C-alpha cells in the first residue's frame, strides 16, 4: 500500500507498506487512529494515544480539524472503511501541504504556530 509518511521535523516521503495492522502500528508507534479532515478520500493515520505520551514530538498542525498531531503519522487513500493506496496525485498534493512544519516548540515546550 502506497502511503505518505510525515515525521516530526522532516519532509514527507512516499513509502510502500504491506498494509497490515502491525506495519501501520510500527509507523505510528502505537495503536492506530484514522481521521479524515480533508475533502479528498484520504485518511490521516496516527497513534491514538500520542498526545498522552510525553516523549512524543509535536509534528504538524491540521487546521481543518483544529488539532495538532504528535509523532509520526501517514496519509493513505480510503474506500469506504478500507485503507487503500494513495494516488500519485494525492501523494504530491499532501507532500506539498505538509512540506514545512507550521509549528515551533520553544525550550519550555510551548507550541507556537508559524504564519
UniProtKB/TrEMBL annotation:
The lineage of its organism: Bacteria, Bacillati, Bacillota, Clostridia, Eubacteriales. It comes from Ruminococcus callidus ATCC 27760. Pfam families: DUF3846. Residues 1-98 form the DUF3846 domain. This is DUF3846 domain-containing protein.
Amino acid at each position: 500500500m502506497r502511503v505518505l509518511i510525515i515525521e516530526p521535523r522532516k519532509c514527507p516521503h512516499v513509502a510502500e507498506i504491506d498494509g497490515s495492522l502491525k506495519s501501520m502500528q510500527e509507523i505510528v508507534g502505537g495503536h492506530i487512529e484514522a481521521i479524515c479532515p480533508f475533502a479528498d478520500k484520504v485518511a490521516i493515520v496516527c497513534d491514538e494515544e500520542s498526545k498522552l505520551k510525553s516523549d512524543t514530538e509535536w509534528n504538524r498542525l491540521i487546521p481543518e480539524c483544529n488539532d495538532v498531531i504528535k509523532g509520526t503519522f501517514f496519509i493513505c487513500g480510503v474506500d469506504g472503511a478500507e485503507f487503500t493506496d494513495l494516488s500519485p496525485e494525492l501523494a504530491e498534493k499532501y507532500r506539498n501541504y505538509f512540506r514545512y512544519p507550521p509549528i515551533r516548540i520553544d525550550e519550555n515546550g510551548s507550541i507556537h504556530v508559524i504564519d
